[in-house]
Amino acid sequence: MTVRARLLDISELNIDTILIQMRDIQLEEYVESLNAFVKDLPAREAELKGFFAAKDYLSFSKSLVAIKDTLVDIHADELAEECLKQINSLSNAKHEKIEAFLTYFLSLMTMLSVDIQMAVYKDELDQENMAQELHDDMSVDRQKSILAVDDNAFLLDPLKQSLQDTGHKLTCVLSGREALKFLQKRDPDLFILDIDMPEMDGYELAHKIRELGKLAPIIFLTGNATPEYVTKALQAGAADFIIKPATKKYVVERVNKGLLRSSNSEY
User: Fold this and answer.
1) Which of 16, 98, 99, 131 lies in the 20 to 30 Å Cα band around 176?
2) Which pLDDT band holds residue 142 (cuts at 50, 70, 90)?
3) Angle between helices 57-73 and 24-53 (to 10 degrees)
């Protein structure tokens, strides 16, 4: 799949008509603007959090305006609209309401950043991944099994709640060691791995999973969208990411997408 096709698959970008009409040189310029958004996001996030903590709502609003303009430039129209709504209501909003918006908005920005990096950077890993093949004994209609690994049991609860009505069989364990023990007798259709875990982090666990010959797609749980973080996850075998905190709809969409890759051997 090309970068152009991957970008078209990013729901946050309203570029269906625009991207199809872009020439290659225009596409390169657009990708550069997307990369600039990714690179600048950590600083923008820190800036917003700083202004919020200081209750400097004027500077907070100006920062949102700059972010809104960037989102318009990269054709993330719905996110830009969310940003504009908050700017217009900021003068009458309470501190708690602004905090709720900030958490929600930054999670959306992180999702977009990760999706962009997946689209732009994943090409470098495709040749390596093409050498891997899934077992052909999988049926699209049968119940799929998912192994989720997170050292915080509290954070696994939303995952369980999100997937309880999907018909998928979800097994949750609290460490990489437990996961490897489980894999001695099981071969899941999908892995969901937290990255920041003690003793064995998600990167190391992903490498060990591949060493065992387990080839199902890996989705990483994260709240970090820095290029270094995402690139390291991709190199460890990431097929996708679930950004924390995540809504039920978002979790189900990402999981179903991962299981579709598993069935079609596309990851």
Assistant:
1) 131
2) low
3) 170
Are 160 and 197 found together in one domain?
yes
pLDDT reported for residue 108: 92
Amino acid 245: pLDDT: 79
* Two structure tokens written together for 4: 């152009």
Please indicate, yes or no, whether residues 117 and 212 belong to a single structural domain of this protein.
no
What CATH number does residue 184 fall under?
3.40.50.2300
Q: Mean pLDDT over residues 258-263, rounded?
A: 76
Q: Flag whether 126 is in a domain.
A: no
Q: Which domain holds residue 142?
A: 133-264
- Is pLDDT at 152 greater than 90 in this prediction? no
Is residue 127 domain-resident?
A: no
Cα distances (angstroms) measured from residue 57 to each of 1, 49, 53, 86, 90: 43, 11, 10, 11, 8
Q: Which tens digits make up the pLDDT trace of 2-20?
A: 888 889 989 899 999 888 8
Q: Which of 87, 121, 155 is the last residue of a domain?
A: 121
The answer for residues whose C-beta is within 8 angstroms of residue 208's C-beta and 6 or more apart is 176, 180, 200
Of residues 176, 191, 177, the one with CA closest to residue 144: 191
Asked whether residue 102 falls in the same domain as residue 170, the answer is: no
Entry field: residues in the chain: 267
With 0.85 as the threshold, say if the pTM is over it.
Answer: no
Pair 205, 160: CB distance under 8 Å: no
The mean pLDDT value for 203-217 works out to 94
Count of structural domains within the chain: 2
Flag whether 40 is in a domain. yes
Distance of CA 196 to the CA centre of its chain: 15
